[in-house]
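Researcher: Go.
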Amino acid sequence: MPIKTIEILLVEDSKSDVELIRSILGACRDVLYSIQVASRLQAALEVVATLRIKAVLLDLNLPDSRGLETLLSLRARAPEVAIVILTGQDDQGLAVKALENGAQDYIVKDRMDSFSLSHSIRFGLLRHELNSGPREDIIRTKPATRETHSLPALLKATSDAADFGDCTLTEMESGMMATRFGMAMAAAIRSKGSEKLPGNDDRLKSLARDLANKRASSHDVFEIFDLMINKHVEDTDQANRRTFGRESRGALIKLLGLLLEIYRQPNGQIDQT
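Model: Structure:
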């Protein structure tokens, strides 16, 4: 299968950081990053206006713009792109504020490697895609908790470390969880939709419990989803991919809601009422 290409814009005025990020992304084996570079906000705005950019790696402090204004200006001109904030060790407070103002993720420069940076970009792309989708996606729990499980609320919660676990699954654990997720999806599609299949809910609940036991983060859930989707694309024909994509999107939202519910319960259990 051809390697996927993702067009990104790197907005960074430090030449050494630009070279570092090029080297890191160049080491990724499962995806090819086509990288455009801009050292100023004005140049970045021109790039997103003329090229088909999927994601932006953004340093908030540039020669012609600083802080949240950098993000707000870019977001206003390019609402269709995912934005990942590049931050220093001392700027994480600002990065969190950026998540509240339209960024999809952030990463600390000193902690970047090919896995974490690529993961952050793909995480940001998926969060942006979900956030841009229909707002009727709601986890159907009892009415008192329905607002908590709306798609916008879930996406906001994924950026709050206090609402999710803080551990990272190993590659083997992620692969096993992705296989289980795929089995749940296959069962759902055979029964013409995950909303109509109680057994699929049971599988997702079991998966959510096991993820919670490992203190899985929201990043882990998105990584599992990404692995599951890529595996299915390899194993199915074009006609069935659209159905699988639609159903799996709903299942991802359910899984996030179930995991969030467990983490917010004092006893760490899914509410059965």
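Model: The longest helix spans residues 238-264.
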